[in-house]
Amino acid sequence: MAKKEETISMIDTLAEFKDLKNIDKDTMISVLEDSFRNVIAKMFGTDENFDVIINPEKGDFEIWRNRTVVADNELENPTLQITQTEARKIDADCEVGEEVTDEVHFADFGRRAILNLRQTLASKILELQKDSLFAKYKDKIGQIVSADVYQVWKKEILLLDDDGNELLLPKTEQIPSDFYRKGETVRAVVLRVDNLNNNPKIILSRTAPVFLERLFELEVPEINDGLITIKRIARIPGERAKVAVESYDDRIDPVGACVGMKGSRIHGIVRELRNENIDVINFTSNVSLFIQRALSPAKISSIRVSEDDKKAEVYLRPEEVSLAIGKGGLNIKLACMLTEYTIDVFRDIEGADEEDIYLDEFSDEIDSWIIDALKNIGCYTAKNVLAMSRAELIERADLEETTVDEILAVLSAEFEDQDNE
Asked: Locate the S1 motif domain: which residues (predicted)?
């Protein structure tokens, strides 16, 4: 009766392991066979002459022992040999020197052997699960995952994915206004996977710039298709972010595509990020123009860039300075993060004393591509242009002589008209 119970116990053990997720069939059979062979080797001193047959579908197994037949008085190793008298109980026609095979019932090994097997299996399966979990999430670093809140602690939140794996969202990786209750679903990006002492720890983040990047990929098909590229991201989580985008198709407006009709695309991202204010700007390799765009909505009067020091001095009208700096200094801080330049803001006192006009005001008289060319060399107002020599404008803005003459005539005439008034 006891032996029958032990056999049932073993079948239950196999059933437990065959239902495990993330472990393929071949690996499972290999682990089971190794575990059986470990116990057999401990019992008999070797496992070389044993065949272990595992059937994980049914949850059962067979163990067969192969022994060489020897004369009754020549038995030296009962593990590898069997006397002819005993062998003929298995195969009546066997002769000395032949091999006979008989089935070994694992339940006959005793309760200790069965417990030993269960412990060995449990240990190996746990190790396999940890390896599988580590490999699975190592490949998901930088990707968005969804998981349910299981436990909320002071310094972190414990989440469970669909397979019941434990994920951690530390307080430092949460948006300041994040608040979750048990059972709620959280979306976050896999930040890293630690594997100290073969104990995988999956760390998620909602504050990493890559989380914002992945949200844009989900909401903007052109980014997912590779037509628009996110070049740079700067974030102050839960407050404000700036995203620089570039299009590889001239027909696509990258900023418009990211924002969507009436903000339809960006609204979903803003909601996910707890109303984080997101500025989307066009990327350019022209440093001075990129800094100008990064400081939006402020309009700058002039700029001096030192590429060697990664520094920029920006001059603005007094009323524009507060816009450039932004509430709590967020705008200029993000502009510095986005451009990777140290930006110093100065009041353009000289420009404040005199009346100056932004070049955009002359769009009806000067072509927009010419205005852009002038902005590219740091000229954003009429007086910025007039302060430069004709030769310098031709060389630096790469414009025709006649074009420069026409520009200077238009801008000079504007100030002459003001003087006459």
From this structure: 142-207
Does 308 lie in the same domain as 252?
yes
The length of the chain, given as a count of residues: 421
Q: What angle do CA 290, 291, 295 make, to 5 degrees?
A: 115
Q: Which residues have a Cβ under 8 Å from the Cβ of 339 and sit 6 or more positions away?
A: 287, 290, 291, 294, 312
Measured distance CA(61)–CA(42) in Å, rounded: 19
| Amino acid sitting at position 250 | D
Does a structural domain hold residue 212?
no
SS3 content of the chain, % helix, strand, coil (to 5): 45, 25, 30
Residue 292 sits in the same domain as residue 321: yes
Q: Which spans in 285-400 are helix H? A: 287-294, 318-325, 330-339, 349-353, 368-376, 382-386, 390-396
- Among 325, 377, 315, smallest CA distance to 349 is for 315
Q: Where does a domain end: 322, 347, 372?
A: 347
Count CB neighbours of 257 within 10 A: 19
Structure tokens at 275: 């109303």
Write down the residue that tokens 């990020």 correspond to.
Answer: 273
Alpha helices in 67-152 (DSSP H): 84-90, 111-138
The answer as to whether 129 is a domain residue is: no
- What is the full per-residue pLDDT of the chain (421 aa) written as tens digits? 344 444 444 555 555 555 555 566 777 778 888 888 888 888 888 888 888 888 766 667 888 889 988 888 888 888 888 888 888 888 888 888 888 888 888 777 778 877 888 888 788 878 888 888 899 999 999 999 999 999 999 999 999 999 889 999 999 999 999 999 999 999 999 999 998 888 899 999 999 999 999 999 999 999 999 999 999 999 999 999 999 999 988 889 999 999 999 889 999 999 999 999 999 999 999 999 999 999 988 888 888 899 899 999 898 887 788 889 888 889 999 999 999 999 988 877 554 445 678 788 888 888 888 888 887 777 777 887 888 888 888 888 888 899 999 999 988 888 776 555 5
- As a whole number of Å, the CA-based R_g of the chain is 38
- Residue 187 domain boundaries: 140-207
Please tell me whether residues 114 and 227 are part of one structural domain.
no
